[in-house]
Each structure stands twice: as C-alpha cells, then as structure tokens.
Amino acid sequence: MERKRSNQSYEAFPMNGGDGQYSYAQNSNHQRTGADTTKHIAKEVILEILDLETLLQDTSKVFHIADLGCSVGPNTFFTVQNIIDAVNLTFQSQTHSTIDSSLELQVFFDDHVGNDFNSRFNSLPDDKQYHATAMPGSVYGRLFPESSIHIFNSSYALHWLSNVPKEIVAKNSHAYDKGKIYFTSEVDKEVAEAYSAQFARNIESFLNFRALELVPGGI
C-alpha cells in the first residue's frame, strides 16, 4: 500500500454548529440513543481484545483514542468516556493498577474542516480525564501518523459519502438522477449502483488509511 497522505478533494457538509434551535447539539437525541444502546458492545470488545502489555511496550505511556465524526454537542464526550471506562477496567484487570498513575490519555476529535470546533472545545467536560485535540479532515483521507492510534471509534459518520457520484449529475449518464437525492424503484438500478460503487470506494479508503494509522493490536 502506498504510504502517503491522500490528496483527494471531498465535499464537506458538517452538521449545524453552535447550540441554537437548529444546531446538531440540540437535534441529536437519536444518535445519543444509538450510542447508549451499543456502548456495551464497545466495552465487551475492549475487555476481550485489548492487550495493554503489548500496546504499551514503548516508553511514551500515552494512549491515543480518536473519535471520527465528532460534530458538536455532548454525544462524542459520552462515547469517549464509555471507551475510557472500558480501557480503565482492562488496565485494572491486566496490570492491577489504575490509568491515572500509569498512563496519560489523548483524545482526537475529528470532523470536517468546517466543523464548529470552537463550540466543540468550549463544551469540554470539566472533569475530563484526557488531553483533547482537534483533528480536522475527512475520514476517507489520511489523518494520523503511521501506527499512532490505539482505539478508533466512529458513530453515525460512515453512511455519509465523500462525494456525489459523478454519474448521478452527468446528464448524459444512464444514472442521471434529474437533481434528486434519492432513488425509489427498480427503474433506478443504475442510480443505486452508482451510489453503491461510491460507498465501496469510500469504505476501502477508510479501512486502508485506518490500517496504516492503527497501532498493531489496536481496535
């Protein structure tokens, strides 16, 4: 695999910032419910798979977590804390000590460059147990140095495509969708195939870049 940063361009439409009536922060209860419903799965995976003895053989003693698609509002903090709680339990079971005395945590909050990172960091929890860092950029491009992240998380982000498939907007294409943003019937088979192909390209990019960035044995 070629080890370089992606120079592709992506269409970026971040969620509404701020804390107003139409902001993502005030309109993401469904996403919070989803994160709450699945938190036990993340906990089980971390407890089962995470091998801290192997991961922490280096001398830095800094554990890196990245939440991809953090947007604004409290959901990302809720998710990150669930991950930290699971890491702490794993740490206690494997080392018989606490994170606080042995390990520093750094959390990267990633979203599009146009995301409202000011609101994001103005709302950081007062009792956070980690160093918080912004990472602007698309999840479909290269974000981090090689073998640098111990745990990646992404919730409600990967169903967004990086670009509208070019076949959808080309008037001479069989998949031209006449300005619509959806398809509704068997007649739209070419439209469905165009979206499916774009999704496949995006997911391949996402997995390839995360494979480079993930620490061996990471999650």
Quickly list its features:
219 residues; alpha/beta; 4-stranded parallel sheet; 7 helices; 39% helix; disordered N terminus
Account of the protein in words:
Strand 2 (104-111), helix 5 (117-122) and strand 3 form a beta-alpha-beta unit. Helix 1 runs parallel beside helix 3. With 219 residues, the chain is of the alpha/beta class. It contains seven helices and four strands; from the N terminus they run ααβααβαββαα. It starts with 28 loop residues before the first helix and ends in a 6-residue tail after the last helix. The protein has a four-stranded parallel β-sheet with strand order 3-2-1-4. Helices cover 39% and strands 11% of the residues.
Radius of gyration using CA atoms only: 19 Å
The rough form would be described as globular
Strand content: 5-15%
Coarse structural class: alpha/beta
Give the uncertain stretches in residue-range form: 1-5
Q: What proportion of the residues is helical, as a percent range?
A: 25-40%
Main sheet specs: 4 strands, parallel
Report the span from N to C terminus.
20 Å
Main sheet: strand order: 3-2-1-4
Count of alpha and pi helical runs:
7
Mean pLDDT level: 85
Number of separate strands? 4
SSE order in H/E notation? HHEHHEHEEHH
